[in-house]
Amino acid sequence: VPIRLSGGLYLAKQWTAIAQFSTVKLDNPYYEGDEMFFDLNLGVQWRFIYEKVFDPYLYAAIGGASVKSDFNFAYSGGLGFNIWFTRSFGFYAEVAYQGLMPGQDPKEYDFDMYGDPDNSWDGEYSVNDNLNYSFGFRICPGKEADTDEDGIPDRDDECPDVWGIEEFNGCPDT
């Protein structure tokens, strides 16, 4: 079962700093033993349409991936969206491209061919450029950001950087 944990820190109305960790057991029927893939990234997320329910975003990150104790530095970028059921609980889906940083040497791994009677699998895979998909649920505990401290969360505030009143959706009475 793949596992992905991520966290974010609200920076501004459309920007969030993110940290992501993923792991999965590599399932190969011709190899006796367990191999784990690990991935760790730090980056930023930009919500290009900032809505209360549908929340699409782009993200970019740097980090790395590890298989068999070999670590490769990598960059990644992707597109995703959130669908919020409440202010703090929602569903997400994401597609991302991950590539090796310049100067990194792609690693290839040979696996023993036990149990492969027709030699249908060549027994090699490499950790380099890849496309990955993820989906799941988001839980956002804590108080929502209110940059101008007017009591109206930035998500609902039409003027998040200027103190305002609720009657004017967070904008000043002018």
Short recap of the structure:
This protein is mainly beta and 174 residues long. The chain has strands at residues 3-12, 15-26, 35-46, 54-67, 70-84, 89-100, 107-110, 124-127, 130-139.
Feature tags:
174 residues; mainly beta; 7-stranded antiparallel beta sheet; single chain
Notes on the structure:
The protein has a seven-stranded antiparallel sheet with strand order 1-2-3-4-5-6-9, with no helix packed on it. The protein has a two-stranded antiparallel sheet with strand order 7-8. Helix content is 0%, strand content 53%. β4 and β5 (70-84) form a beta hairpin. It contains no helices and nine strands. By secondary structure, it is an all-beta fold.
Average predicted local confidence, pLDDT: 79
Low-confidence segments: 109-125
Helix run count: 0
Strand content: over 45%
State the separation between the terminal residues, measured CA to CA.
Answer: 56 Å
Helical content class: under 10%
Assembly type: single chain
Q: Quick one: biggest sheet?
A: 7 strands, antiparallel
Helix/strand-derived class?
A: mainly beta
What value does the Rg take, in angstroms? Answer: 21 Å
What strand order characterises the main sheet? Answer: 1-2-3-4-5-6-9
Shape: elongated
Order of helices and strands: EEEEEEEEE
| Strand element count | 9
